[in-house]
Write a structure and sequence with these properties.
The chain is of the alpha/beta class and 177 residues long. 47% of the residues lie in helices and 19% in strands. The protein has a five-stranded mixed beta sheet, with helices on both faces. Strand 1, helix 2 and strand 2 form a beta-alpha-beta unit. The relative contact order is 0.19.
């Protein structure tokens, strides 16, 4: 029961952040795109669950395979070989690709090991990278979540939305207003 309560609490916080994100972006005329691997579209689903999100969300790509990361998002083969799909470099290139394809103002990406299987010593279950592009720059942050697959994915969505809200608040949008 604790896990269900935990996921429900995280999802409720994510819903509040998604609503805040849509309102802020709508006020400022900003567009958002997503490129998701380990979350499989949950970030864009969270945003599009908010009424009025159609004026905000530009693109959502579920890029679970490395082929899609390469061919659609433009993640380089070198990045995948040198750093792997579970890396800050890959997350940054995924977010940059989503932004390039959509011409959105902000983009977020997720890549990692949600589990329960698939983890290694180098990339354990719960290791997630979130990439974000805004104001002409991209960066990524590494997280190490614990819990079930559902908890890891829910926490990843929450962190993405938090980072997007922060980026909107920090966005130099004087020319958009």
């Amino acid at each position: 029961m604790k896990e269900i309560e935990d996921i429900e609490e995280i999802n409720a916080k994510s819903a509040a952040l998604a609503k805040q994100l849509v309102e802020l972006c709508a006020e400022r005329g900003l567009k958002v795109s997503t490129a998701e691997s380990c979350t499989g579209g949950l970030v864009s689903a969270s945003i599009t669950s908010v009424s009025g999100s159609s004026s905000v969300i530009e693109l959502g790509i579920c890029s679970y395979s490395n082929r899609i990361k390469r061919e659609v998002l433009g993640v380089s083969e070198k990045t995948l070989e040198e750093f792997s799909e579970y890396s800050a470099e890959c997350a940054e290139e995924m977010a940059a690709g989503a932004m390039r394809i959509s011409s959105s103002d902000l983009a977020v990406s997720t890549t990692g090991v949600a589990g329960p299987g698939g983890g290694t010593d180098k990339h354990p279950v719960g290791e997630v990278y979130i990439g974000i592009c805004s104001n002409g720059s991209c960066k990524a942050k590494r997280f190490l979540f614990s819990g079930s697959r559902e908890q890891i994915r829910a926490r990843t969505v929450f962190e993405c939305l938090k980072m997007l809200v922060f980026s909107v608040n920090d966005y130099n949008s004087h020319d958009k207003i």
